[in-house]
Amino acid sequence: MNVFDCVVVGGGPAGLSASLTLGRARRKIALFDDGTNRNRVTHAAHGFITRDNIKPQEFRELGLKELENYPSITYFHATITAITKAIGNEGFIIKTTDGQEFISEKIILATGIQEIFPFEEVRNFYGKSLFSCPYCDGWEMRDKPLLVLAEKEDHALHMAKLVYNWSKDLVVLTNGGPLSEEGVTALEKRDIKIVVDPIKKLIGDDGYLQAVEFVSGETIKRAGGFVVPSFYRPNHFVEKLGCEVQEDGTAITDGAGRTTEKNIYIAGEMEKSAPSSLINSAASGQNAAASVNMDLTIDRF
């Protein structure tokens, strides 16, 4: 059976960064990833200095290639199905879909999150003309006729204020959700149109939006825009391993990746169950790895 100092679950920017840091610290590391990272649907990632406009797959491949320089790191393209505490809570047993088992002293959870859209057809356009992060994709959508799709008023107002920096030609869609008089006034002061009617369908070709048709029969032309999804963790490792979470789903940590369960760490979007930039996720992964390395050092010195 394979025995490791630390298993890193998830090969996004957080997991890659954590693995690199631990590999450079000469720790025996296993990195597991199954290629389901949520940014795989987009053509390019932005905002990571020296890597602006890089394709997500290229970013991942570059990261994995760099890990090859460190012989103590082993990469597995596999899905982990179970993580259980070993007898006496000394380490963990990790099982994969292909029947393999591994033992690790410590675990970093970095599998990220996934989206639930207010209108499921958004998925057909997501990553090409509809996005969730203006900082990531606002520049590419600048000055185009855009929409903001959000069913809750606070989300709609927040996103509209942000997107307005990149385009003044803006329509807010609530897909049937109500807006208060104050909310309507705030948007109309900026000449932002509001449509509260439920959406019937999105019209476009090959992922590029052209128009939105509503149940009322109205149709508006739009070239793209930004949506406010809700997010969830794609697995239940946090809960099953007993890590405490706040009411909003954020994992409780010490600020450096350590959860409330000994030897379990968390990094990247999985910690807050909320979206993050590549560069922030990578930083989170490095911080968690530094905590792992320090704890291993203290345990063994």
Automatic annotation (TrEMBL):
Keyword Oxidoreductase: yes
Requisite cofactors: FAD
Molecular function via GO: oxidoreductase activity
Top-level taxon in the UniProt lineage: Bacteria
Domain FAD/NAD(P)-binding residues, every copy: 4-285
Pfam families for this protein: Pyr_redox_2
InterPro entries in the record: FAD/NAD-bd_sf, FAD/NAD-binding_dom, Ferredoxin-NADP_redctase_2
Keywords of this entry: Flavoprotein, Oxidoreductase
Subunit structure: Homodimer.
Protein name: NAD(P)/FAD-dependent oxidoreductase
Organism, scientific name: Radiobacillus deserti
